[in-house]
Amino acid sequence: MEQQAIQITSALLGSLVGITLALTGAGGAIIAVPLLIFGLHLAVAEAAPIALLAVSLSAAIGAALALKLGRVRYRAAGLIAVSGVLTAPIGIWAAHKLPNAPLTLLFAIVLAYVALHMLRQSRATVAKAEESCSASWMRPSAV
Fold it and tell me: By residue range, what is the domain housing residue 106?
């Protein structure tokens, strides 16, 4: 790819990730890594650090805005951050030692698991909301 095409593609992919992050709060690397693999034809070991840096900057801005609104759970965020800082070097080392095909397959399995879990969770939430609405319609109103 020529340099200008790479820059345009990178900007478009970054915009897509940013919008998705803002709308869903989803882990940006889950979206950014596949986009980098397929959009820029990078290996997982190349795409992961790029995605982590780009997403961390976007996430920092989102977190700052949420902090301003008082919507940050400090203990959860701290635990995730510390765990990530401690284990990221192991993941980076392993990514450079393993071939791309098994890494891509592992990443696809993680994506499938997350997608399935989110689908089940959303269905349960919808069912609970429908049940709640049905129950409120059946209650006699106080007049």
Answer: 3-138
Question: What's the N-to-C CA distance of the chain in angstroms?
Answer: 71
Residue 142 has pLDDT above 90, yes or no: no
With respect to residue 121, please indicate whether it lies within any of the assigned structural domains. Answer: yes
d(Cα 35, Cα 86) in Å, to the nearest integer?
A: 26
- Tens digits of residue pLDDT in 8-29: 988 888 888 778 777 776 667 7
Residues in the chain, total:
143
Number of domains in the chain: 1
pLDDT at 84: 86
Identify the residue whose tokens are 């840096």. 53
The DSSP letter of residue 69 is: T
Inter-CA distances, 46 with 26, 51, 52, 55, 121, Å? 21, 9, 11, 15, 32
In a domain, 117, yes or no: yes
The reply to whether 107 falls in a domain is yes
User: Quick check: is 143 in a domain?
Assistant: no
Residue 24 token pair: 């869903």
CA-derived radius of gyration, the chain: 20
Among the listed residues 53, 33, 52, 32, the one whose alpha carbon sits nearest the alpha carbon of residue 43 = 33
